[in-house]
Amino acid sequence: MEKINNKTIITVLGHDTVGIIAKVCTYLADNDINVLDISQTIVSGYFNMMMIVDMEHSKVPFSECAESLDKIGEELGVAIKCQKEEIFEKMHRI
Q1: Which residue has the higher pLDDT, 94 or 75?
Q2: 79: closest CA among 49, 37, 53?
Q3: What is the C-alpha to C-alpha distance for residues 39 and 90, in angstroms, rounded to an integer?
Q4: Rg of the chain (C-alpha set)
Q5: Contact indicator for 80, 24 with CB cutoff of 8 Å
Q6: How does pLDDT run across 27-73, given as a tens digit for each residue?
Q7: DSSP single-letter state for residue 59
Q8: Phi/psi class of residue 19: alpha, beta or left (left: φ > 0; alpha: ψ in -120 to 50)?
Q9: pTM for this structure?
Q10: Residue 3 pLDDT more than 60?
């Protein structure tokens, strides 16, 4: 039986503001999406975060998660994008 990869890459980019990590992580926790790894930096006032999450037990499908995080990003004034890990890896292969 083929193992399904439930890992998703979430990226956040925009002007730094209070509560970005909190809002994103609250949404993920509320929907049983587990954060596996997170990296964030702030350079000259620009916030950049990359997360790897596991959606295996998620209460919402990938498409709904991506839509909801996009709306949260709009509220915060940042761009939040979700990509399934296998697509992300294929797009960034050298």
Answers
A1: 75
A2: 49
A3: 21
A4: 13
A5: yes
A6: 999 999 999 999 999 999 999 999 999 999 999 999 999 999 999 99
A7: S
A8: left
A9: 0.86
A10: no
Say which residue, 94 or 12, is predicted with more confidence: 12
Structure tokens at 34: 């587990």
Closest CA to 85 of 44, 42, 56: 56
In 10 A of CB 10, how many CB atoms?
21
CB atoms within 10 A of CB 93: 6
Which amino acid is located at 73 in the chain? G
Q: How far apart are CA 92 and CA 72, in angstroms?
A: 26
Q: Which residue has the higher pLDDT, 3 or 51?
A: 51
The two tokens of residue 42 are: 């702030």
> In whole angstroms, what separates CA 58 from the centre of its chain?
13
